[in-house]
Amino acid sequence: MAKVSGAQEALLGKLEETAGVENLRPVPVKEIDRRLNRYLAGRPGPVSAMVKDLATGRVYRYHAGESMITASSAKVQILLALLLKTPWEKLSGDVRRDAELMIRHSDNQAADRLWLRIGGAAGFTEAGRRFGLKHTQGVPGDCVDLYCWGITRTSAEDQVRLMQALVSGKGPLRRKERDQVLRLMGAVVDGQDWGVSVAACEGDRVALKNGWLKRVSNKLWATISVGLVRGEGRDYAIAVLTEGSPEVGYGMATVEGVVRRIMQSFRKCSA
Predict the structure, then answer these.
(1) Which CATH architecture has domain 28-263?
(2) What is the CA radius of gyration of the chain?
(3) What's the N-to-C CA distance of the chain in angstroms?
């Protein structure tokens, strides 16, 4: 092995120090705000977003506490509530199959069955409380819109908190169960992997759950993407919630446009 001279060692130290400063540089909040405001000025409906670099704690919030519906992104919390009650290895084959269908295929009937298994709104809300969620409560009784779990109101802050819990040992769920959730979120079927995934660089792993729901009341779409982008020793928890899109594809494009405009201030992919 070649020896490193004193001068080379000092240079390496300076490079490492510079990299550390770069990683900890304050997030340019006003710059991102302007970028998003310009982009969203001509697009209908409210948008809420939050990104957190879990390695450094750097964070950006855009109306992150605003309450919006979850649509199918609620299925992650349904699965977490299920696993808080019963470890994955003790679930029956049918229940595991429902979990796979619910997360990977966004199957609504599977979600309905697991919603009942966790105790409906009460079980859903209790699970959220254990994960420290502040703005997310299950909808009890009959639903005006499509599915009770789909019209649950949440916030980008709560969704980022939930994503962080999937990679943290400080939460109420064992690592084995967290790994199962991440496995399913990392294997969603083609066509459902939009949204958070546009933040990934080559070699990154993405775990996400998206939601899309046409409101009965106004015929407009809610589109949501929450998840983790993991690579180069860094985990980015990302949540974007939108409502009021005229078409689902329009809402998906809005979500991805927001993710791109935030993430360009957090990292740049190698060419």
Answers:
(1) 3-Layer(aba) Sandwich (3.40)
(2) 20
(3) 30
> Alpha-carbon distance 147 to 155, whole Å?
18
What six digits make up the tokens of 187?
């294997």
Q: For helices 248-263 and 29-40, what crossing angle results, to 10°?
A: 160
Domain boundaries, the chain: 28-263
Round to whole Å and give the CA distance between 239 and 124: 19
| Residue 29 backbone phi and psi in degrees, to 5 | -60, -50
Per-residue pLDDT of the chain (271 residues; tens, 9 = 90+): 344 344 444 433 443 333 444 457 899 999 999 999 999 998 999 999 999 999 999 999 999 999 999 999 999 999 999 999 999 999 999 999 999 999 999 999 999 999 999 999 999 999 999 999 999 999 876 554 456 899 999 999 999 999 999 999 888 999 999 999 999 999 999 999 999 999 999 999 999 999 999 998 899 999 999 999 999 889 999 999 999 999 999 999 999 999 999 999 999 886 5
Residue 40, both tokens: 């969203």
**Token pair for residue 177?**
């169960």
- Contact indicator for 138, 122 with CB cutoff of 8 Å: yes
